[in-house]
Amino acid sequence: KNEVEQSPQNLTAQEGEFITINCSYSVGISALHWLQQHPGGGIVSLFMLSSGKKKHGRLIATINIQEKHSSLHITASHPRDSAVYICAVWGGADGLTFGKGTHLIIQP
Amino acid sequence: GAGVSQSPRYKVAKRGQDVALRCDPISGHVSLFWYQQALGQGPEFLTYFQNEAQLDKSGLPSDRFFAERPEGSVSTLKIQRTQQEDSAVYLCASSSGTSGTDTQYFGPGTRLTVL
Questions:
Q1: Which one of A58, A89, B8, B87 has the largest count of C-beta atoms within 10 Å of its C-beta?
Q2: Does B44 touch chain A (CB under 8 A)?
Q3: Please, what's the largest Cα pairwise distance for chain A?
Q4: In this complex, is the C-beta atom of B90 within 8 Å of any C-beta atom belonging to chain A?
Q5: Which residue of chain A has the CA closest to B43?
Q6: How confident is the model over A5-49, as pLDDT tens digits?
Q7: Which of A93, A94, A98 is nearest residue B43 as measured by Cβ atoms?
Q8: In this structure, what DSSP letter does residue B27 have?
Q9: Which tens digit of pLDDT belongs to each residue from B61-107?
């Protein structure tokens, strides 16, 4: 079973700061997902990556397959970015394996 | 519909009761996934359907858990003889593709509390 580790577990930053959330996994995968979950809210898919880099607005996600590592970056962070960010991997069996999430708070 | 819907949104059950949780995926989506999210934890995979076929049920925690998708659309997750450790949010997701390499669209979840 894949082990998915995220860091940091909790992150508080000031509005405007550049944010990085890291995800590492133990076994080779077919795809990695970054998800966002607001308190009391549902989960929204941000990115699905199998290689390289993707960008959507102020969000950037990268993956290094050889190093089994992915990062999610938020540029010019804003209080509305406050949420739990979850990394999940798909290896083809046992469904998606999720990390425990990173609790991000952006203070005005 | 516009997105994945789940019902009920909240369910309180007494220990030992049976419960049924419903998921309506996005119309036309082939794949449907069920996840369990305990308080303060990340979701955990329960089971996965491709159309009406249940391709993977390795995550179901016990034989008290049963899922079906008889016509390849709506799915029901049934928990028999509920226990307190079953208290969690049950999430459903669907995707247009046939594997976990496609974007999954999540429903709002059903929060189950077992007293």
A1: A89
A2: yes
A3: 42
A4: no
A5: A98
A6: 999 999 999 999 999 999 999 988 889 999 999 887 789 999 999
A7: A98
A8: T
A9: 999 999 999 999 999 999 999 999 999 999 999 999 887 788 899 99
